[in-house]
Amino acid sequence: MNVFRLAGDLSHLLAIIILLLKIWKTRSCAGISGKSQILFAIVYLSRYLDLFTTFISVYNTFMKFVFVVSSLGTLYLMYLKFRATYDHNHDSFRIEFLLVPCVVLALLINHDFTVLEVLWTFSIYLESVAILPQLFLVSKTGEAESITSHYLFALGSYRALYILNWIYRYVAESHYDLIAIIAGIVQTILYCDFFYLYITKVLKGKKLQLPA
Amino acid sequence: SNKESQHDEL
């Protein structure tokens, strides 16, 4: 554990809390992509199966548990409790276009051809693109509420901080994992356009609105 | 690459 990883994990946790609070307080999931949330739930469920096989630390187990439970809770709020507020007309991204390539890639490029390892690899690939339906939804409606922008900023920062963690670990521990690193870089690049809008607009008190 | 038998990151 180093400061970059801890900051990344906390940023990830913050994103999840912001999203749940937004939905709970406003009693609405307007502007949130259910498709992205389904993909994140698949990511956590396929990656954290090692909860049953490997113990790393109390911290590790606790965070995995929180991510799995909160992603299922988010799905419950979106698709059951506040279903009427779900913006499904704009949330039209076809997730099979992400799922199928990630399955194929995980079968082809992995560290070890075992069930758990291929599922882990699949989850890493899928996480890197899981935000696309959300970004697609924002681009379709042309705007995002500030609370949604804060959520996206925290979620995007997490993998960016992990890149610093990976640089640190390579230097300090000679440890590296190319699959995680390359997917993490792809994931962070997908947020760059959003980061730019967030810094130039949302932080100056303006609403995130895309140019017409 | 560095083969990982266990993934210690989240």
TrEMBL record, chain A:
Keyword terms: Endoplasmic reticulum, ER-Golgi transport, Membrane, Protein transport, Receptor, Transmembrane, Transmembrane helix, Transport
GO term, biological process aspect, one: protein transport
GO molecular function: ER retention sequence binding
InterPro entries in the cross-refs: ER_ret_rcpt
Protein's UniProt name: ER lumen protein-retaining receptor
Membrane-topology annotation of the record: Multi-pass membrane protein
Biological classification of the source: Eukaryota, Metazoa, Ecdysozoa, Arthropoda, Hexapoda
Organism: Clunio marinus
Subcellular location: Endoplasmic reticulum membrane
Family note: Belongs to the ERD2 family.
Pfam families assigned: ER_lumen_recept
Keyword set includes tRNA-binding: no
